């Protein structure tokens, strides 16, 4: 493995000076803004596309030059899509949203692990093997956002959650009950669009359509150096990790995250000591 690759991976995972930069990204938010948040590779892109279509009335795509639902820090010129001139911004950060509404997307950590490894491979940031990645993943060292369990607890146990300002979306529910979950999520944002528009959004963001949108997207839509032959949009299979992760990988993840996973509705690792 080259020295350049090692340096790139270290820079990606580094949290040095990250906190003040993240705080700066939160400047200029309005009380009426809302957040779409998840740990990476949990389904945020898919839900963002669905919500973009419903909130704007037009299909979403990967072009970074026209994103009505931008990443935190890029929200200054975002259109007001919510009541009282509110904007919807998405984030993977742990920094809170104050009194604002939050949609938090969670996914089985075993599926997240495999999806993140493949995402890092696509960006040429993966360690030398899946074994090494899992070792870092369970310790919260695979990316700059920390561990899966810390991220989930940080968002789901905040005051906003206790006061009803957090709407939890499980990726698996979004996959099996897309229309119903999307209806509930849109209503949480204070919007009541025609059901036909929501159906249209669902039809335009199936797995097949998302893959087509990715293939048609310009190179500027993705990070520099991305290996586009490795897809960003995958099948999102609920149990696809079973065909790739070894029993040792599964045990490591379940030991590390089983208790928190069960707290958000996943029946995993209950036979293990966590």
Task: Note down, in words, how this protein is organized.
This protein has a single domain (3-263), classed as Rossmann fold. It has twelve helices and four strands, in the order ααβαββααααβααααα. The chain has helices at 3-13, 18-25, 44-56, 109-122, 130-138, 148-156, 159-162, 171-176, 178-188, 195-203, 207-216, 247-263; strands spanning 34-38, 88-91, 101-106, 166-170. The protein has a four-stranded parallel sheet with strand order 2-1-3-4, sandwiched between helices. Helix 3 (44-56) packs across helix 10 (195-203). The chain is globular and about 50 Å long.
Number of helices: 12
Low-confidence stretches: none
Q: Could you tell me the radius of gyration in angstroms?
A: 18 Å
Spell out the CATH superfamily: P-loop containing nucleotide triphosphate hydrolases
Helix content: 40-55%
N-to-C SSE string, H for helix and E for strand? HHEHEEHHHHEHHHHH
- The backbone outline, from C-alpha atoms, is globular
What's this model, at a glance?
The protein has one domain: Rossmann fold (3-Layer(aba) Sandwich).
Please write out the topology.
Elements: H1 3-13, H2 18-25, E1 34-38, H3 44-56, E2 88-91, E3 101-106, H4 109-122, H5 130-138, H6 148-156, H7 159-162, E4 166-170, H8 171-176, H9 178-188, H10 195-203, H11 207-216, H12 247-263
Parallel strand pairs: 1-2, 1-3, 3-4
Helix pairs in contact: 3-10, 5-12, 6-12, 9-10
